[in-house]
Specification:
Length: about 325
């Protein structure tokens, strides 16, 4: 492109407005901001995402952890040129009515609306999520669905992008979402460099499920289900059929299956599938082992069985998962 002898055009800046309120989760604010700030290191002038913070009255806010944050501006006076970021926290449960109203006024002016964790509840109250697919922390998805039935709530992904609106699950998912936005704006190399600088992984796709096997299920209070949860997690390649697990628990298969479900909230087979998925995903991300080897090591048995588990939980084949998300970090 001809730049009239002036050299290449400077990369575009994308001003970022972060909304603050009493009871905000400090990590929902600082996690994404560290990603966006790191993007400025390679940007002329160090301002890839010029930052402004605002609260309803411009007064300092107290985070749910007790940290005091002083905003730059009154929300009504803040300009929104590109990205509006709404963090979550306890303060989203019963917010000042002026807060969603203010977001409703700012939302149409932003090129990109983002919410971290229960910040989705504030965006839902404000209206921009109507008719959109969105997510939040898995523990609050039912609340979001009841609060605004017009929102198409997806409880599984760690973040969701629907047009100009992006929403994420809990704290660390906000970092994943911020890295994805930097990758979109400045390319994968920039996002990988930031991930390396912050000692985080640029490997979690938005459609990766929020759960781990342990967090998806209740932890059993009694033995033998509790001991078997631990055994399954630590020995995914062992014989884990209901009959084999029941024999280990010294119970009949029927009695064991009933007790396991009562204690954990899911069937033994479902729990084993989750463990298989969790181990397989890590092996695909962190090793170069073939799909067949990964399937055996993760306890899925065969590559076909592992493909079924991935398709059900993530909507993607294991080989495609690796091709899309297994990328080495650049060398120093």
């Amino acid at each position: 492109m001809d730049t009239g002898g002036r050299g290449p055009a400077a990369p575009r800046t994308r001003p970022l407005l972060v909304v603050l309120f009493d009871g905000v989760q400090s990590l929902d604010v600082s996690g994404p901001l560290e990603v966006f700030a790191a993007a400025g290191h390679a940007h002329p002038g160090g301002a890839a995402y010029p930052l402004t913070t605002a609260s309803l009255d411009g007064a300092p806010v107290r985070t749910q952890g007790g940290l005091r944050i002083a905003p730059d501006l009154v929300l009504a006076d803040a300009a929104v040129e590109h990205t509006l970021l709404v963090p979550g926290g306890e303060g989203t449960r019963h917010p000042d009515p002026r807060l969603p109203a203010g977001l409703g006024e700012h939302g149409p002016r932003a090129e990109r609306l983002t919410a971290v964790c229960t910040g989705s509840l504030l965006l839902a109250r404000a209206g921009p999520l109507d008719g959109r697919r969105a997510t939040t922390h898995r523990a609050h998805c039912d609340h979001l669905a009841r609060l605004r039935p017009q929102v198409r709530v997806d409880p599984d992904p760690i973040f969701v992008r629907d047009g100009r609106i992006a929403t994420s699950a809990g704290v660390t998912a906000g970092v994943d979402l911020a890295l994805a936005l930097v990758e979109e704006d400045h390319g994968r190399d920039a996002a990988l460099t930031i991930a390396r600088h912050l000692v985080v992984l640029l490997r979690r796709p938005g459609n990766q499920a929020q759960f781990s096997a342990r967090s998806a299920a209740q932890t059993a209070c009694r033995e033998p289900p509790r001991e078997l949860q631990q055994f399954i997690t630590e020995h995914p390649a062992a014989a884990l059929s209901v009959d084999a697990l029941a024999a280990r628990a010294r119970l009949s298969p029927r009695h064991f299956a009933r007790a396991f479900r009562a204690e954990t909230g899911m069937t033994p087979g479902r729990y084993v599938d989750r463990v298989c998925l969790e181990h397989a995903r890590r092996l695909l991300e962190d090793t170069s082992d073939g799909v067949h080897e990964v399937a055996r090591a993760a306890g899925c048995g065969t590559a076909e069985a592992m493909r079924r588990v991935f398709a059900t939980a993530l909507g993607i084949a294991p080989a495609d998962y690796r091709r899309r998300f297994h990328a080495p970090l650049p060398a120093h």
